[in-house]
Amino acid sequence: MRQYNGRGRRRGIYVGPGAVLLLLAVVAVVALAALALRGCGAEAPPAGGDDAAADSGGQDGAAGQDGEDAPPEVVTTASGASCTLMDLGEEAIYTGELILVNNSTFFHFPENQELVSVYEEKNDSYYVGGTNVYLAPAAMDALNAMLADFTAQGGSKSVNVVAGHRTEEFQQHLFDQSAERNGLEHARQYVAQPGGSEHHTGYALDLNIYHSDGTSAEYDGTGEYAWINENCQNYGLVVRYATDKADITGIADEPWHFRYVGIPHATQMVKEGLCLEEYIDYLKDFTAQGKHLMIQCVSGAYEVWYAEGSAIYLPDSGEYTVSGNNVDGLIVTCKVG
Q1: How far apart are the C-alpha atoms of 23 and 31, rounded to whole Å?
Q2: Is residue 295 domain-shared with residue 256, that is, in the same domain?
Q3: Which of 29, 93, 127, 260 is deepest in the core (most CB within 10 A)?
């Protein structure tokens, strides 16, 4: 037995053969247990634990819960326009020149609505049926330009603007009046329900004919007036209701009813033969992060894209408009040439 003689040191501990055998047995049991666990597929967790594993799926930690990267804040469109992702708020979906309003998609009445008097703003190329006819400024400008060109190319000064913006209360009066005179079915076919009329928007107007002898007639868009219906898209207006679209619009043929949507969109609607209900669905194929719609018209070239919800890429500079569709998203129309 070895002995330590230094001051403060302890003597060595003697380990007998029995203790050695016992220690070897314990080691063997532990080794067997480890092999058994490995055979069952148990693995040690990755470094950093569960949180580290969750974070490893995205680039720079930017991935969402489903592993998809968050959309970039800045993009460049096909035409070279630099755009930044902006959230305009839900109310933006219900305002703008492209909002769809019908008996299934009601207008969201704002607290304040910008309107101008047709009587005060009109030029000398047409008449207006009173001092209480109002339109949105963009529709007013389009009306003046279109009817000035109509008379300049030989049309007579006989067009009369008889309807523009309407309140919900006045639309109710018109619907009830039609139902009383012609029956409920007739009213439903020819008169929009309160809240479902395009006239609430300020972007819709109705025409008739006023003769020099003081008599009036229905506007049907034929004869000399065919020029208006054939060229209105060049001013941002479309004939809203046609016979072959009545099953979609819910309104029978009205050649006197025009709707302002802007020159590029009016041009594209006429080119594709689409009513506004169809056009709103058509635009959904041109997403903000996908293929964009390119439109060439009399006012230039435009790039158009749609995004569901209230967040959309807006150009950092240049001329553009943004409009809700009054259904589920926003549409940007950017002038590129």
Answers
A1: 13
A2: no
A3: 260
Interval 261-278: pLDDT, tens: 999 999 999 999 999 999
pLDDT above 90 covers what percent of the chain?
A: 74
Range of the domain at 44: 1-70
Residue 254 among the catalytic residues: yes
* Dist CA 7 CA 4 (whole Å): 9
Residue with the two structure tokens 């009545």: 246
Residue range 126-176, pLDDT digits in tens? 999 999 999 999 999 999 999 999 999 999 999 999 999 999 999 999 999
Question: 229, 255 in Cβ contact below 8 A?
Answer: yes
Task: Mark 267-282 as b/e (b = at least 16 C-beta within 10 Å).
Answer: bbbbeeebbbbebbee
Residue identified by tokens 């009383």 is 180
Question: Of 204, 227, 260, which residue is a domain's last?
Answer: 260
Examine residue 268 and state whether it is found in any structural domain, yes or no: no
Phi then psi dihedrals of residue 40, to 5 deg: -85, 0
Out of 254, 272, 277, 278, the active site residue is 254
Question: 161 CB contacts (<8 Å, ≥6 apart)?
Answer: 118, 122, 126, 127, 128, 129, 133, 143, 205, 206, 207
